[in-house]
Amino acid sequence: MTSVELKRVVVTGLGAITPLGNNPADYWAGLISGRNGIAPITLFDPARHDSRIAGEVKGFDPHDYLEKKEAKRMDRFAQFAVAASKQALADANFQITALNAEQVGVIIGTGIGGLKVLEDQQEIYLNRGPDRCSPFMIPMMIGNMAAGLTAIHTGAKGPNTCTVTACAAGSNAVGDAFRMVQRGFAQAMLCGGTEAAVTPLSFAGFAAARALSTRNEEPQKACRPFDVDRNGFVMGEGAGILLLEELEHALSRGAKIYGEMIGYGMTCDAYHMTSPVPGGSGAARAMQLAMKDAGLDPSQVSYINAHGTSTQANDSTETAAIKQALGESAYKVAISSTKSMTGHLLGGSGGIEAVATILAVANDHIPPTINLDNPDPLCDLDYVPHTSRQATVEVALSNSFGFGGHNVTIAMRKYPQT
User: Fold this and answer.
1) Least CB-packed of 53, 280, 294, 297 within 10 Å?
2) What are the pLDDT digits (tens) for 70-100?
3) Distances in Å between the alpha carbon of 410 and those of 36, 322, 350, 400?
4) In a 10 Å sphere around its CB, with 0-12 CB exposed, 13-18 middle and 19+ buried, how is residue 350 labelled?
5) Is the pTM of this model over 0.90?
6) Are residues 78 and 15 part of one domain?
7) Are residues 224 and 343 both part of a single domain?
8) Are residues 268 and 248 both part of a single domain?
9) 268 is catalytic
10) Is 307 designated active site?
């Protein structure tokens, strides 16, 4: 078997549509200032629901990125993805042309896809009959359309697929795109995650599973990862997209480089539909595999962007997993859950958290975990409570875990190495 020369992969462009802002600069400023994007739901009337708060995207106008007719034929999750992808290309000053289109690909993950379209069309079907359903219903709701429509609207003709691994989908997309560039299947990849599941049916389902916070009177304090008083996650929506590029290609065009992608690990608990395996062995192995892939010793890790959902099961299990993966170094690494400010974007979370992680590396600034007032005794690591921290970030990991037992860790480092 012929060995493949692995390419170095760097991040040259970012896009973000989030509850804290609709571009990477506003998103990052919100994270560093510890601003909270969670508020009462406005996208539908939540009066009948136990949980009535969410991290909604505010002030997003799809017509800033799409013609009116095109936007109308897309679910919100796909609009977010196309918008964030166009931002990433503009940020990277990367032009997709007839000469390079076949070398630029797209992998965008989502957990649920076009649920709002499905709900709306079901209502039309029940009230007005099957012949009144939209001919665009299926292409608007299926999860791969974020990646497909992004390619259509950017001209990227290279590898194109969609990861659907629940809340790990965005990180799987970034990791899979990393492999594509690393192994020479593409010169550049748009990748990340998107979700727009702030809908009545989604909230009904997650509430029935007792997964959502019901701290409706205090939305700003509802998402509190690693805190003893946490009582469930808060739904968020949005998209985070990175442009990954082969290093020599990026250098040849004088691109700015945020940092280098260096490792990817994924495992499965093979244990339960919704609960992590006790002790976090699957999550620990994902971190260990990402570090092995990157050639890292645990002592080299400066920061971990935690999955940190603010659920009883996740936070203590993730803490145990970090200890298992990093050993004594677990007590020295800075860890934070940016979900405390954005809520949980499901399949989109890995995308916006990858953006946050590479910006922490580029800016030597670690976002905080807000609302960590009373740490759970089982969560006894350094979670950067309340206030962001200036610190050198040479190497960072980002964790994402999903229903079905999916565990994903990606690793990034500063470029050039110091």
Assistant:
1) 297
2) 999 999 999 999 999 999 999 999 999 999 9
3) 25, 14, 10, 9
4) buried
5) yes
6) yes
7) no
8) no
9) no
10) yes
